[in-house]
Amino acid sequence: MIRFASLGSGSRGNALLVQAGRTRLLIDCGFGPRVLAQRLARLGVVPEQIDAVLLTHEHSDHVAGVGALAKRFCCPVYLSPGTRRALERRQHAVPHLREFEVSAAFPIQDFQVRPYAVPHDAAEPTQFVLDAEGLSLGILTDAGRVTDAMRKALAGCAGLMLEFNHDATMLANGPYPARLKNRIAGGQGHLDNDTASDLLRQLHRGSLQAVLAAHLSETNNHPAQVAKQLGEVLGDNPVAWQIASQAAGSDWMTLQG
Ligand SMILES: [Zn+2]
Ligand SMILES: [Zn+2]
């Protein structure tokens, strides 16, 4: 069994907890020690139980709390070489760093980690497929578009955390300045609801058990709109889905072998 839960998702902070066997991984850590501990407690976990952190990229909504966590609990932090250089350039001190090659899978205890590259306006942005007990959990947020390599990496996953960042019409008609709108909608920005729905339609196979929609914009999206689109793609199939919120994240979702 793999289980996973968001601790909060959006432009003000991200972290995803994933567990298989006795191994607990945190994907990104955008929350400071106090908030992190509170949100882990809701899921019955204490920070000491985190075995490792995987970073997707250096944007502060993904790394703001990682230095404090790694320092306090001596927890290893895995990241791409480009993400490491970007953190160092900003003098964002994080101990216990371990670089991985984006093209190569590597083990962390009960997990096999498969990093894959995504287009996003960061130094070397990377997302992950986590394999354990014959199951795969695919993670994808912070990507401006979907490439064939990304589709290939995510094929066959039993669980998916997918970015549904914005509704294209809401973004276009919304309050953001033109430059920011162009950045978000561009090929190195964030996935809109239609692009995410199309990807989910392509990945929707019998093996799919659970979908977590994530990184919703609080200004340019509505959870109700995302729910409607998830319902349209998943139909009556027995696929569990949730929408991760900024304030509360999500409940546990479970993948069974
Ligand atoms: Zn982000
Ligand atoms: Zn980002």
Kindly describe this structure:
- The strands form two sheets. Strands 6-5-4-3-2-1-14 form a seven-stranded mixed β-sheet. Strands 7-8-9-10-11-12-13 form a seven-stranded mixed β-sheet.
- It has a single domain (2-255), classed as 4-Layer Sandwich (Metallo-beta-lactamase, Chain A).
- It has 257 residues and is α/β, with parallel strands linked by helices.
- The termini are close together.
- It has helices at residues 33-42, 60-63, 66-73, 81-89, 148-154, 168-173, 178-185, 193-203, 223-234, and strands spanning 2-8, 15-20, 23-27, 52-54, 77-79, 97-99, 106-108, 111-117, 126-132, 135-140, 159-163, 210-214, 240-243, 253-255.
- The model has no long low-confidence stretch (mean pLDDT 97).
- The chain is built from nine helices and 14 strands.
- The longest helix has 12 residues, at 223-234.
- A hairpin with a 2-residue loop joins strand 2 and strand 3.
- Helix content is 29%, strand content 26%.
- The protein is globular.
- The chain binds zinc ion (2 copies).
- Residues 57, 59, 120, 122, 142 line the site of one zinc ion.
Provide the CATH architecture.
4-Layer Sandwich
Shape: globular
Q: What is the H level of CATH, i.e. the homologous superfamily?
A: Ribonuclease Z/Hydroxyacylglutathione hydrolase-like
Q: What portion of residues belong to β-strands? A: 25-35%
Please bin the fraction of helical residues: 25-40%
Main sheet: which strands, in order across? 6-5-4-3-2-1-14
Low-confidence stretches: none
Q: Kindly provide the name of the CATH class.
A: Alpha Beta
Q: Give the rounded overall mean pLDDT.
A: 97
Topology-level CATH name: Metallo-beta-lactamase, Chain A
Number of strands: 14
Radius of gyration, whole Å: 17 Å
Largest sheet: 7 strands, mixed
How far apart, in Å, are the first and last alpha carbons? 6 Å
State the assembly state of the protein chains: single chain
Tally of helical segments: 9
